[in-house]
Amino acid sequence: MKEEIKVYDNVLQLIGNTPLIHLNTITKEFKGNFYAKAEAFNPGHSTKDRIALYIIEEAERAGILKPGDTIVETTSGNTGFSIAMVSIIKGYECILAVSSKSSQDKIDMLKTMGAKVYVCPANVSADDPRSYYQVAKRLHEETKGSVYINQYFNELNMDAHYNSTGPEIWKQTEGKITHLVACSGTGGTISGTARYLKEQNPGIRIIGIDAFGSVLKKYHETREFDSEEIYPYRIEGLGKNLIPTATDFDVIDKFVKVTDEESAHTARELAKTEGMFVGYTSGAAMQGVKQLNQEGEFNANSNVVIIFPDHGSRYMSKVFSDEWMTAQGFFDTKNEVDANQIEF
Ligand code: PMP
């Protein structure tokens, strides 16, 4: 984990201790104080560096991983990048089964970091043999000396955040945090961070961000899996079509659902208002905060921490492309597309 030293032995020492940044403009009309936990400041540019390092080092401590072994994982991109980065420094092979919903940028980055990448169809059920879960399982079984990180069903995912993200936020806010808002995919970030924070102060409100098309919010409310909730959506890394055991639903107070379109616009707005070039799910988290503000969730004394999971550079061909936004029908007028572009 990152310490204040001048020279680092390798990139892994820069993981964690990410900054907490006050939001000044986008929240101007809101009640309360709002802070972004900017996970793009990790060396792999996302929160997933924390779990990659933690889970791999736990496997080393348990004697499961030996030099030259192979690490297998399913990923929407960020976890894969982080595992590939940790594998390079520590001398492991890295095999990744990724969803076809992942951007080409992300897939190219994984290959650049030395990973072997299998692209699997996004819109098949989790138990379909073509799904990235099943492909990863098969690759793990076929590869001798391999470890399957299995982030959706690995409690160590939660523990990584319990031991780092949670204590950091508690310290950075000097214990004054009243609300945590975080996207839920595997649920590791929100559950681990929330567990730590609720141990310090059980009154802290924990709010998860879910996508329309995902089962998490309904499951939280009913404890029943409702397949009717499932349909394709565009945000990558947020929401799920299954119930991950890496999520502790009991520490989450409520879920808010956000749309693809509003999350995309809010991600672009964060760049223009706060100068923060962050990813699609950061836009989704901020969009959730807007909705919560309207619902009256906050008051003047609220200190709200919003986790921004990754960097905007990973979405150049998507949310930050005018062509992509237009193709999704997310721009209403020609003017909106061209508002920033001056041609001679
Ligand atoms: N945002 C992005 C961009 C992600 O890749 C992920 C991980 N799937 C999340 C948010 C959600 O984090 P978690 O898996 O810890 O719930």
TrEMBL record:
<dbReference type="GO" id="GO:0044272">
    <property type="term" value="P:sulfur compound biosynthetic process"/>
</dbReference>
<feature type="domain" description="Tryptophan synthase beta chain-like PALP">
    <location>
        <begin position="12"/>
        <end position="310"/>
    </location>
</feature>
<dbReference type="InterPro" id="IPR050214">
    <property type="entry name" value="Cys_Synth/Cystath_Beta-Synth"/>
</dbReference>
<dbReference type="GO" id="GO:0006534">
    <property type="term" value="P:cysteine metabolic process"/>
</dbReference>
<dbReference type="InterPro" id="IPR001926">
    <property type="entry name" value="TrpB-like_PALP"/>
</dbReference>
<comment type="similarity">
    <text>Belongs to the cysteine synthase/cystathionine beta-synthase family.</text>
</comment>
<dbReference type="GO" id="GO:0009069">
    <property type="term" value="P:serine family amino acid metabolic process"/>
</dbReference>
<keyword id="KW-0663">Pyridoxal phosphate</keyword>
<dbReference type="InterPro" id="IPR036052">
    <property type="entry name" value="TrpB-like_PALP_sf"/>
</dbReference>
<dbReference type="Pfam" id="PF00291">
    <property type="entry name" value="PALP"/>
</dbReference>
<protein>
    <submittedName>
        <fullName>Pyridoxal-5'-phosphate-dependent protein beta subunit</fullName>
    </submittedName>
</protein>
